[in-house]
Predict the structure.
Amino acid sequence: MKSIVRLAPLLCLAIGAALPAAAAERMTGEALSAYVKKVDDRANKMGEMQHVNYLQDKGPDGTLMRHANVYVRDGGEQFLMLFTQPSNLAGSGYLLIGRNIWLYDHKVGKWERRTMRERLGGSGARYRDLGSFALAKDYEATDEGVDMLGKRQTRKLLFKAKEGAEVDYPVLRIWFDQNHDRVKEESFALSGKLLRTTYITKRAKAVHPGTGEELLVPTEVRAFDELEKGRETVITFPKYDFSPLDPNIFTKAWVEGQTR
Amino acid sequence: MFLGILQLAARNLVMHGRKHLLLGGAIAMVTASLVVVFALGRSLVTDLYDVATSVHSGQLNVEGTFKPGPQLAEQLLLEPGPVEALIQREIPGARIAPRLYAWGGVSSEKGALMRGTQIFGLDATREPGLANSLKIVAGDFQDLARPGHVLLFSKQARKLEVGPGDVITLAAQTSRSGTYNTVDVTVAAVAEGESANLGMQVLVHLDSVTALLGHPEEAVSRLQIHVPDDAPELPVLQDRLAKALKAEGHAFVTGEYWPFMFAQDRHESEPWMGQRVQVITWEDVMAESRGRINGFMLLLGLLRVLLVVLVTFGLANGVAMMVHERTREIGTLRAMGLGHGLAIWMFVAELLLLQLLAGGVGILLGAAGCGLLNGLNIPVPLAFQVFMGAGDHLSFDLDLVQSLSTLGLMVTVMSLAVVVTVARSSALKPILAIQQRS
């Protein structure tokens, strides 16, 4: 006890010195813009790719499982998701055209227009979880300084949606590691209520065949619904493929052709 | 003369007591069963109408669809004031209740309702019919009139593990930007309601839904109209209102009416922009449930006709046999000077008396059965609840008109059987009729 009392002034001094240092570390202006650009570049570096993903939605009322192939080009500007399991959904999928996502029902051969906010295949996952996205385009960033997530040092940024931006979550708080990769994300409602917390729990190294660059790709993402306690969406990415995609892949005709 | 025939009929009833008791018992049992079946059908339709015209819809409604851009449609009437004034002018004495609809999540600290719960924004002070139709089991309905308050149904309150005074969160996406928003609301009251028609929505103060969706303050989705009792038929009023709205320059949504969640895609693929309206009845709003109930009622009706035909002809055959057995009696009466017509009347009166007595007993038995079944609170399987929008317990609502008309049909067919059989027997020469073996 005595030692703590003796150490207290030293601790105060250390904290006092650390706080201004942390505050001084906070980026603003061009430095912050450059940081966000790096984040966007990092997320979109994978370019044209195909990945397999498993969506698992666990809730109090049971578990829902979806397997799908996802095709992405131009940093998510072109996006296609084709379900492979369960068997009743296999052949159906989502195709992004402009700002709309179209749902294809292979049983009736019909397309239905949906929005970017669609819960993919009835799960808790959304387009943003599977495609890439540009933060700089839709959000204004504020640096909240360095933060420790467990033993990992991260940088915490607060993103507020720009006027007129069509986004699901008007406020995001994202923790980035030293490679500018997302580690944790909190998504807030307009009212300021926390709606979802997402963790990128696993990553794997991959080499891009085109650029030869070594990439760190997410292999497991866990999203926790903060309103519906106990509901969790786990997205696993067991396979990435960076080979060039069919030029016509992002068309309705190509999708329809897959089930014929 | 008439009294004499009745007196004779009554004496005959007593004299052939055992046979009449059997026949009368059969008539009473059949009538009682039909009364119960009719009561079940009536209860389903009455429940649907009550729920439809208090919770889901007005008897008539003016619904708005607003398109701020070619690819975005909202269930919105931006300026309800002038439309309300027009309704008051066209249907004097009408009660108008504004509603604003949203779909979203409802959650508490301990639980959540299914995604896509219907959120009905309303002004409780303008919906006295709602207060009368809901059975409040906890809290006070009047509190729903206070901003930031919500009414839950019992199964929702159980799932969320909340009661009056607890705070729950409503979450939805704003219709324009699609951004997520939430509002916290306090539970004002919990109403009894276990059926599919009453478990899919929460009733919230209008202001909370306006804030949740980020709509302009005045905007509503629909104006629900409850017409006065002495008003003309709904189709007449619907037509009158539509003409008046057109005359004032309101554009109309074209094509068949579909609930907005199903029609949104259609609207968003059409090129028009701005405000359009529709005048719809409660049956349009509840088309899905109504269709299912109509199908069920058709099945019930067919079953009823089959039952009535089989039973009536069976009973008529029994009656004919009974009369046939009394051919010697008819012959004796004819030999004593009873006219042909009078012989027919005597038997018709006897059977009429029997049928009316047995039918009356049957209706009383049926009514008692309905009371008993209501008291037993027989649970309804969940699949049936969801399919029919029925409550979680079967209820039986006595339908006297249907029961009496069916009894009338049975009486007529059986009387015809009597007339034919007696006419045949009394057409015989009395000596031949007397000699006939029973």
Remarks:
- The longest strand of chain B covers residues 95-107.
- Chain B has a mean pLDDT of 84.
- Residues 75 and 260 of chain B are 7 Å apart (CA to CA).
- Chain B touches chain A at residues 71, 105, 107, 109-112, 114-115, 169, 171, 173-174, 177-183, 214, 265, 268-269 (CB under 8 Å).
